[in-house]
Amino acid sequence: MKKVVDVSIPLGPVHPCWKEPARIKCETRGEKVLSAEVELGYMKKGIERIMKGRPWQEVLFLAERVCGICSVIHNMVFIEGMEAISGITVPDRAAYLRVVVNELDRIQSHLLANFSFCYTIEHETLAMYLLNTRERAMDSLERITGARVNKAYMIPGGVRFDLRDADRAALCADLDHMEEAVNRYARMFEGGPLIATRAKGVGILTREQARIARAVGPTARASGIAEDLRLAHPTYRRLQFAPIVRTEGDNFARIMVRFQEIFQSIMLVRQCLHDLPAGPIRGGGTCGAGETVSRGEAPRGELSYFIRSDEYGRITDIAIRTPSIMNIDACTHYMLPGVTSLADVTSVFVSADPCIACNER
Amino acid sequence: MSLLQDVKNWVRARSIHVSYVDVGSCNGCDIEILACLAPRYDIEQYGIYVHNNPREADILLVVGAMTPPWVERLPALWAKIPPPRAAIAIGNCPISGCVFNRRETYILGPVSKYIPIAAEVPGCPPRPTEILSAVLSVAPTVFRDYEVKRP
């Protein structure tokens, strides 16, 4: 039977709500979205092709430029892969410092994602509050690593800079400020009646659908799938850590999972600072030949690197799988169909926190 | 110089509408532009309004290394912006391709081959304050006495 469609509405690639170019075609009947289709390819730079045949020292910088928002986890997963290949061990202090920087990066990424959602539903006050709080996280990152976005903090065998006592005090102050501020904004979000109409019950992804679409990260955890690759990471295992799960599966749940993960990340950073052992921050080692799959939990979900290197530490083959592709799929195939208003399409898409740059590389 | 022109110069220096287009960046420059919106930098106190609509923009911020799909779309987008207009390249990518301009790459930079670039802000990525000062210094000079200079 021929499908009855009123009109096919394209959104993007340049759209006021989206930071990055993507095109969504929505087939609608009236205001109701029947089906959606995503068109990608606006950001394909061929990073994996550039990486092949280059020494790890260059690939290190290319890897974090896969994604500017979550550059730390790309750096971390690639470096952990190189360490696994070459049998390099990391000093304890460096392992904890990696977790500190990674969690700070997660905080700023989640704050940015929640800012985007609030901005998309036109709650500009809350959005600006969140964006301003994010600047505190960026300050902490800059103090520790020396850069705001592309940091290249981790290297095989350790990290590049130690945490100085003055920075540690400033970091603790920033954490206290962020916890208090985000606590207030999370309550504003939770209790806002107008936010509830735009967020609760919109863009539902059930647990079953999340499993079929292979959703990952906060998107999956908001649909009741308790998966977090940090559970498999040796340093995180030493900290008390349990993934945050909600069961509603709507926009509201996805944003609230991110808010709760910000608190969790703050606790993890505090715990790391408490347990931080003294000692060196860099060990020795030479990158050698081998092949491995390295995985880690990016702010958006599971990130994996397949790396093959030769005896001089050159990367002969590399394949990256980023979390956004699964979440975009889950969004277009399961969240968007059935959305009752076209006005909600952008907010549903943003609530899945798609990162097109990661996705296409 | 007529009084009308003076008024126009004054108004144009204080009300700058900005649109940004991402032609294949790593997202780093995008989020630094977004950070300009934060109350700490408060881009709107200078009369700069960021909204991603080319049809009401004065300044186009170009971010990214110029991927093939944008070769046709970027000039089309530029044509939609009503004059007087100016484009600013943000970050190393639109200027030189940065780390992406290597063997085996897909990018077709630099951006200045496709649209006229009035100013360039290097950095990977530049700080929000640098982006802010670039927009503030370019807009009044480019838009000054526009009607007189126009051929």
Molecular structure report:
The complex is a heterodimer of chains A (361) and B (151). Chain A is α+β, with helices and mostly antiparallel strands. Chain A has a single domain, classed as Cytochrome-c3 Hydrogenase, chain B (Orthogonal Bundle), CATH 1.10.645.10. Chain A has 14 helices and eight strands. In chain A, the strands form three sheets. Chain A has a three-stranded antiparallel β-sheet. In chain A, helix 2 runs antiparallel to helix 3 and helix 6 runs antiparallel to helix 11. The longest helix of chain A is centred in the first third of the chain and has 29 residues. The radius of gyration of chain A is 21 Å and the shape is globular. Chain B has 151 residues and is an alpha/beta fold. Chain B has one domain: Rossmann fold (3-Layer(aba) Sandwich). The relative contact order of chain B is 0.21. Classes of the chains: A alpha+beta (361), B alpha/beta (151). Chains A and B meet through helix 1 and helix 5 of A and strand 1, helix 2 and helix 3 of B.
What is the structure about, briefly put?
Chain A is α+β, with helices and mostly antiparallel strands and 361 residues long. Chain A contains 14 helices and eight strands.
> How many alpha or pi helices of chain B?
6
Order of helices and strands of chain A: EEEHHHHHEEHHHHHHEEEHHH
Major sheet summary line of chain B:
5 strands, parallel
Q: Pairing-aware structural class of the strands and helices of chain B?
A: alpha/beta
CATH class descriptor of chain A: Mainly Alpha
Structural class of chain A: alpha+beta
Oligomer: heterodimer
Distance between the termini of chain B: 16 Å
Q: How large is the share of residues in beta strands of chain A?
A: 5-15%
Major sheet: arrangement of strands of chain B:
2-1-3-4-5
